């Protein structure tokens, strides 16, 4: 590592030592002790959910006050002006500490919407919202998917019609994470229905408290409501909240989606780390007296081979990034494997547990896995379905001809 | 010594260029029906021009002192070209067995010849069952009273066993499994070729009848030596496998781009496209697993034994998958003798089972993880 990176890592460590305690190893397990929750999506009651979001905001504010709120951001908007390598180094150091989970702010808002605003918004919007986002004041969501525009995102039908210096938005968005906590949303709208679909889209930053914005929780198959439907009815947005050109919104969307792929492939912590941890799975097999079952052992080995090989893939991609290089298709491969590995793990554990995952016996660390089991179908869909990811790999990496598309 | 990224790229491209000229498909097809199963002139050139046999042998024994990372690059290229050569048996199995034995005298006697390309060697462990588990070995060695030993028994699946100048043989003594060196021309040694699924890799059955042998390493230390050798050799094999798998993927993608049916390139059909994407995923994982294991070996990391088991399992699976799907993407033409797809299929299956196959390597991984 270069000297300045080492100095930066030391500075991060000093900051974290002063503000947080060291985290316990998430993969270490003592059977029967501690929290056995395997929830992938938060399934907190509303009061606890609000506290969770507040803790995220508080920690982001402390990061920001100490120069770690937006490491790669330009200094004029409250950023630190450093490189993605510094960002990775900070994340690696922070992962050793027990700090609030800031996912509600960072995954969509700071990770994807922030860079998009920076690249495409007008100065007034950048000044108004970028510092607020990275200070933890503003949560941002992505108003992209619609009932009729899922994998085929460019077919969005929410209309935006110009009236003087304003635009009037009407339509429905769906699968919107964190909308219920958001101050702003990045919306893709149809501004020219006559143009080819990629060339008739315009992007706007929508203040979520604007009249006509209605957020309704969307209950998903886990039973919780982590996503939302967002209805836009005659929502008036000033033209200076437009990102990119009129009818140039697809370019804006691509910026967001590029940043999404970088975020989604990461390995994760908490229940995810536990589900793929050899120690955790072996403790489970011992506790259920299945550790010498040959059929289960063979499946465990297969599962761990894929999980550990994926970890090696991530390690190597990260090392390439740190050395200033550009990884190849590793991020897309990693995202695909992430969904597959967790799916395999959840089904493997189900088969180890047998009836204990179909009805709650009260035994620690058993029925709790049903939460992960029910979450896994989402992992093969969100952030681009497996099928779309495979199209991307085949077309962009292997150079296969494009699908026939309308 | 360690090569940086640029050094590794240069190594790869010089080996690839060499193999494109010296080991094109026609040469592979000719050699797999010849005896010996390699071209001595090409082997000599690989040693003289590219110094390949000396690459990963320590400098004190006449080598260039590079590690498994560099060796892995060479093996990926050889796997890709299906090179018929005594490289795997000599450099990956036998030389690593000498090094793992810790016997400096034996290393000093044999490794300089291997490094220079003059000596080829083989490692004979498995017997009729095919198992590499030293506990299952029944070949025996007894002291002959003059400081040497007399070795008797049978060995099977010995790669390059009919041609290697030097044979390293695991046999049982009173102290347990032990490693021995036997000369090709020793009295009482008989070698017959075995018919092999993968004709690019020659295998032999060896019979030892009170053959004169030298102990390598400590008497009874063969089990420990073999545990190390299997880790290193399975990472070497993994590199070969990932190179072969990458070649299958490239061949399939090329065919899917150019072959037309129903008026369109078949690669525009999602069923074919997704098959190719699945191959890519497996190949990327295989490369990551084998390269990372090699890196951990060179760093002397405590994580190496687990990584070696992961690489062996991951690359075995990936290569077999890629070789099967390569034939499927090609359709009927892929099932012909003239098309090279079956050569990769044969190599993939033979490599997957060389050290015992899934049942063995899955348990080895769980064992290494303490499960």
TrEMBL record, chain A:
<dbReference type="Pfam" id="PF00441">
    <property type="entry name" value="Acyl-CoA_dh_1"/>
</dbReference>
<dbReference type="InterPro" id="IPR013786">
    <property type="entry name" value="AcylCoA_DH/ox_N"/>
</dbReference>
<feature type="domain" description="Acyl-CoA oxidase/dehydrogenase middle">
    <location>
        <begin position="141"/>
        <end position="235"/>
    </location>
</feature>
<comment type="similarity">
    <text>Belongs to the acyl-CoA dehydrogenase family.</text>
</comment>
<dbReference type="InterPro" id="IPR036250">
    <property type="entry name" value="AcylCo_DH-like_C"/>
</dbReference>
<dbReference type="InterPro" id="IPR052161">
    <property type="entry name" value="Mycobact_Acyl-CoA_DH"/>
</dbReference>
<dbReference type="InterPro" id="IPR046373">
    <property type="entry name" value="Acyl-CoA_Oxase/DH_mid-dom_sf"/>
</dbReference>
<keyword id="KW-0285">Flavoprotein</keyword>
<feature type="domain" description="Acyl-CoA dehydrogenase/oxidase N-terminal">
    <location>
        <begin position="48"/>
        <end position="137"/>
    </location>
</feature>
<feature type="domain" description="Acyl-CoA dehydrogenase/oxidase C-terminal">
    <location>
        <begin position="248"/>
        <end position="398"/>
    </location>
</feature>
<dbReference type="InterPro" id="IPR009075">
    <property type="entry name" value="AcylCo_DH/oxidase_C"/>
</dbReference>
<dbReference type="Pfam" id="PF02771">
    <property type="entry name" value="Acyl-CoA_dh_N"/>
</dbReference>
<dbReference type="Pfam" id="PF02770">
    <property type="entry name" value="Acyl-CoA_dh_M"/>
</dbReference>
<keyword id="KW-0274">FAD</keyword>
<dbReference type="InterPro" id="IPR037069">
    <property type="entry name" value="AcylCoA_DH/ox_N_sf"/>
</dbReference>
<dbReference type="InterPro" id="IPR006091">
    <property type="entry name" value="Acyl-CoA_Oxase/DH_mid-dom"/>
</dbReference>
<dbReference type="InterPro" id="IPR009100">
    <property type="entry name" value="AcylCoA_DH/oxidase_NM_dom_sf"/>
</dbReference>
<protein>
    <submittedName>
        <fullName>Alkylation response protein AidB-like acyl-CoA dehydrogenase</fullName>
    </submittedName>
</protein>
<keyword id="KW-0560">Oxidoreductase</keyword>
From TrEMBL, chain B:
<dbReference type="InterPro" id="IPR006091">
    <property type="entry name" value="Acyl-CoA_Oxase/DH_mid-dom"/>
</dbReference>
<dbReference type="InterPro" id="IPR009100">
    <property type="entry name" value="AcylCoA_DH/oxidase_NM_dom_sf"/>
</dbReference>
<keyword id="KW-0274">FAD</keyword>
<dbReference type="Pfam" id="PF02770">
    <property type="entry name" value="Acyl-CoA_dh_M"/>
</dbReference>
<feature type="domain" description="Acyl-CoA dehydrogenase/oxidase N-terminal">
    <location>
        <begin position="9"/>
        <end position="117"/>
    </location>
</feature>
<feature type="domain" description="Acyl-CoA oxidase/dehydrogenase middle">
    <location>
        <begin position="122"/>
        <end position="211"/>
    </location>
</feature>
<keyword id="KW-0285">Flavoprotein</keyword>
<dbReference type="InterPro" id="IPR013786">
    <property type="entry name" value="AcylCoA_DH/ox_N"/>
</dbReference>
<dbReference type="InterPro" id="IPR037069">
    <property type="entry name" value="AcylCoA_DH/ox_N_sf"/>
</dbReference>
<dbReference type="Pfam" id="PF00441">
    <property type="entry name" value="Acyl-CoA_dh_1"/>
</dbReference>
<protein>
    <submittedName>
        <fullName>Alkylation response protein AidB-like acyl-CoA dehydrogenase</fullName>
    </submittedName>
</protein>
<dbReference type="InterPro" id="IPR046373">
    <property type="entry name" value="Acyl-CoA_Oxase/DH_mid-dom_sf"/>
</dbReference>
<dbReference type="InterPro" id="IPR036250">
    <property type="entry name" value="AcylCo_DH-like_C"/>
</dbReference>
<dbReference type="Pfam" id="PF02771">
    <property type="entry name" value="Acyl-CoA_dh_N"/>
</dbReference>
<feature type="domain" description="Acyl-CoA dehydrogenase/oxidase C-terminal">
    <location>
        <begin position="222"/>
        <end position="359"/>
    </location>
</feature>
<keyword id="KW-0560">Oxidoreductase</keyword>
<dbReference type="InterPro" id="IPR009075">
    <property type="entry name" value="AcylCo_DH/oxidase_C"/>
</dbReference>
<comment type="similarity">
    <text>Belongs to the acyl-CoA dehydrogenase family.</text>
</comment>
């Amino acid at each position: 590592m270069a000297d300045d990176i080492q100095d930066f890592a030391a500075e991060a460590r000093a900051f974290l030592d002063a503000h947080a305690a060291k985290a316990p190893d998430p993969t270490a397990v003592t059977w029967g002790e501690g929290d056995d929750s395997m929830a992938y999506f938060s399934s907190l009651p509303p009061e606890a959910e609000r506290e969770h979001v507040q803790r995220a905001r508080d920690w982001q504010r402390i990061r920001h006050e100490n120069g770690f709120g937006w490491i790669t951001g330009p200094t004029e908007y409250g950023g630190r002006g450093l490189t993605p390598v510094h960002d990775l180094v900070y994340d690696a150091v922070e992962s050793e500490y027990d700090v609030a989970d800031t996912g509600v702010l960072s995954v969509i808002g700071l990770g994807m919407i922030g860079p998009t605003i920076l690249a495409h918004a007008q100065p007034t919007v950048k000044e108004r919202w970028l510092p607020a986002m990275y200070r933890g004041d503003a949560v941002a969501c992505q108003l992209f998917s619609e009932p009729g525009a899922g994998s085929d995102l460019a077919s969005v039908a929410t209309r935006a019609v110009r009236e003087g210096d304003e635009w009037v938005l009407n339509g429905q968005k769906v699968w919107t994470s964190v909308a219920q906590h958001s101050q702003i949303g990045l919306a893709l709208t149809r501004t020219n229905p006559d143009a080819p679909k990629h060339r008739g889209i315009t992007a706007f930053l929508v203040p979520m408290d604007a009249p006509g914005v209605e957020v309704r929780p969307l209950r998903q198959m886990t039973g919780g409501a982590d996503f939302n439907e967002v209805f836009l009815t005659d929502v008036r947005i000033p033209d200076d909240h437009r990102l990119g050109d009129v009818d140039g919104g697809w370019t804006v969307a691509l910026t967001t989606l590029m940043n999404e792929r970088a975020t989604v492939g990461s390995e994760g912590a908490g229940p995810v780390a536990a589900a793929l941890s050899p120690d955790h799975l072996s403790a489970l097999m011992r506790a259920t007296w299945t550790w010498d079952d040959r059929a289960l052992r063979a499946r465990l080995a297969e599962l761990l081979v894929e999980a550990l090989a994926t970890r090696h893939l991530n390690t190597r991609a990260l090392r390439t990034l740190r050395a200033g290089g550009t990884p190849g298709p590793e991020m897309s491969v990693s995202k695909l494997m992430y969904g597959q590995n967790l799916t395999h793990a959840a089904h493997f554990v189900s088969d180890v547990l047998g009836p204990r995952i179909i009805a709650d016996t009260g035994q620690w660390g058993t029925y709790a896995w049903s939460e992960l089991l029910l979450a896994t179908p989402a992992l093969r869909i969100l952030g681009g379905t497996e099928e779309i990811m495979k199209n991307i790999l085949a077309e962009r990496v292997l150079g296969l001809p494009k699908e026939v598309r309308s | 010594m360690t090569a940086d990224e640029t050094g590794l790229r240069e190594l790869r491209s010089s080996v690839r260029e060499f193999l494109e000229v010296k080991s094109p498909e026609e040469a592979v097809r000719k050699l797999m029906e010849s005896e010996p199963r390699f071209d001595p002139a090409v082997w000599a050139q690989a040693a003289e021009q590219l110094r390949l046999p000396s690459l990963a042998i320590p400098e004190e024994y006449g080598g260039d002192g590079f590690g498994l990372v560099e060796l892995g690059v060479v093996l990926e290229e050889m796997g890709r070209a299906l090179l018929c050569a005594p490289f795997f048996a000599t450099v990956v199995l036998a030389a690593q067995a000498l090094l793992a034995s810790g016997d400096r005298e034996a290393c000093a006697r044999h490794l300089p010849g291997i490094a220079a390309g003059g000596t080829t060697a083989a490692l004979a462990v498995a017997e009729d069952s095919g198992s590499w588990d030293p506990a299952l070995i029944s070949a025996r060695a007894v002291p002959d009273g003059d400081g040497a030993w007399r070795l008797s028994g049978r060995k099977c699946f010995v790669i390059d066993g009919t041609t290697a100048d030097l044979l390293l043989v695991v046999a049982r003594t009173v102290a347990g499994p032990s490693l021995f060196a036997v000369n090709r021309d020793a009295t009482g040694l008989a070698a017959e070729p075995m018919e092999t699924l993968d004709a690019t890799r020659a295998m032999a059955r060896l019979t030892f009848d009170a053959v004169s042998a030298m102990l390598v390493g400590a008497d009874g230390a063969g089990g420990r030596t073999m545990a190390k050798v299997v880790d290193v050799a399975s990472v070497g094999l993994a590199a070969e496998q990932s190179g072969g798998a990458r070649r299958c993927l490239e061949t399939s993608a090329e065919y899917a781009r150019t072959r037309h049916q129903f008026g369109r390139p078949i690669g525009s059909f999602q069923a074919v496209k997704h098959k190719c994407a699945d191959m890519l995923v497996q190949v990327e994982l295989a490369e990551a697993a084998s390269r990372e294991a090699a890196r951990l070996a060179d760093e002397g990391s405590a994580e190496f034994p687990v990584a070696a088991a992961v690489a062996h399992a991951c690359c075995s699976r990936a290569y077999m998958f890629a070789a099967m799907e390569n034939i499927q993407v090609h359709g009927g033409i892929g099932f012909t003798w003239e098309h090279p797809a079956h050569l990769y299929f044969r190599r993939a299956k033979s490599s997957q089972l060389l050290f015992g196959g899934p049942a063995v390597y899955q348990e080895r991984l769980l064992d290494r993880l303490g499960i």
